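Why should sequence recovery work at all? Because a backbone constrains its sequence more than one might expect. Tight turns favour small or flexible residues, buried strands favour hydrophobic ones, and helices have their own preferences. The token representation captures these environments compactly. In the example below, the structure is given first.
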């Protein structure tokens, strides 16, 4: 199966599993949660987790609860990110954002609900006894990635950003905190569940960090191209605006090379990882 077919098939599995987790109840909060999650996200993080796990021989059923939990956390972060008191975005994935559809109170609660549910799913994930330590470690890693030293710290740096005299290092730090941790933990958790060695897990962490930074830069390039000249957007931290079009594309390529090198160093070969790297590179000169 080629990478495109493989990922399409896995995305179908992830979407189905997410729908099952969220179908449980008919309440306004669940409706807002379903609206925010089941609407065509790329599922990049859970796909990365599945690919990483399967690369080391883990079965899909073992990996799915972890993959879905990370996707729920990602979706909570997007609901909150769009709120008027944060980025104030009216649209997400081509539809009204959650608070536009349900109001800010339900959107806030739906975000909180997704975050808590993610940890409920993680704690309940059926994992063989031999993997219990791995499971504990992954839950700790996911909590740290989404917590006040990871994503939350990044969102605060993003919100408190002063555009007067930004340095590239400041913008990198924001991306390293708000975006890279969930991508890094997706890459490493799959490997851990597949029984990868510590050195291999470290390689995957390095790979995930570079990939995460590249992912945010790619998003920044797209935002910058779309919003050039917009007054509101110019106050938001954006690496592409700081670097300019040519240097940002060069920087993206450097990051993707570093991501690939992290794998080569440990002789980790995966067609799917290569495909992820190429996907972030295509369409840019
Ligand atoms: C958007 O993430 C926010 C960033 C971290 C850049 P995605 O690009 O993964 O969004 P969806 O889930 O596919 O909509
Ligand atoms: C998304 O960041 C939020 C997180 C990474 C937690 P951005 O604000 O850069 O992404 P978009 O442009 O809203 O998707
Ligand atoms: Mg935003």
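From this structural description, the recovered sequence reads:
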């Amino acid at each position: 199966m080629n990478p495109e077919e493989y990922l399409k098939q896995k995305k179908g599995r992830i979407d189905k599993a997410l729908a099952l987790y969220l179908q449980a109840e008919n309440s306004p909060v669940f409706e807002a949660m379903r609206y925010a999650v089941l609407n065509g996200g790329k599922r990049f993080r859970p796909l990365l987790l599945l690919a990483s796990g399967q690369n080391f021989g883990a079965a899909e059923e073992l990996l799915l609860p972890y993959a879905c939990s990370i996707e729920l956390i990602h979706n909570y972060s997007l609901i909150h990110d769009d709120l008027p008191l944060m980025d104030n975005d009216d649209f997400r994935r081509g539809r009204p954002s959650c608070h536009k559809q349900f109001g800010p109170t339900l959107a806030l609660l739906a975000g909180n609900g997704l975050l808590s549910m993610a940890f409920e799913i993680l704690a309940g994930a059926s994992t063989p006894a031999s993997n219990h330590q791995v499971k504990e470690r992954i839950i700790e890693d996911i909590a740290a990635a989404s917590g006040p030293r990871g994503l939350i710290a990044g969102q605060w740096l993003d919100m408190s950003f002063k555009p007067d005299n930004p340095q590239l290092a400041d913008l990198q730090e924001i991306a390293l905190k708000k975006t890279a941790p969930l991508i890094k933990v997706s890459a490493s958790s799959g490997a851990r569940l597949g029984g990868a060695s510590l050195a291999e897990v470290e390689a995957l962490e390095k790979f995930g960090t570079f990939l995460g930074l590249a992912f945010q830069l790619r998003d920044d390039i797209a935002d910058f191209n779309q919003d050039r000249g917009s007054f509101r957007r110019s106050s938001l931290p954006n690496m592409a605006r700081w670097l300019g079009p040519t240097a940002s594309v060069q920087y993206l390529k450097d990051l993707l090379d570093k991501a690939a090198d992290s794998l080569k160093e440990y002789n980790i070969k995966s067609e799917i990882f290569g495909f992820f790297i190429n996907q972030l590179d295509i369409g840019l000169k």
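A few observations help interpret the result. The CA atoms of residues 3 and 272 lie 6 Å apart.
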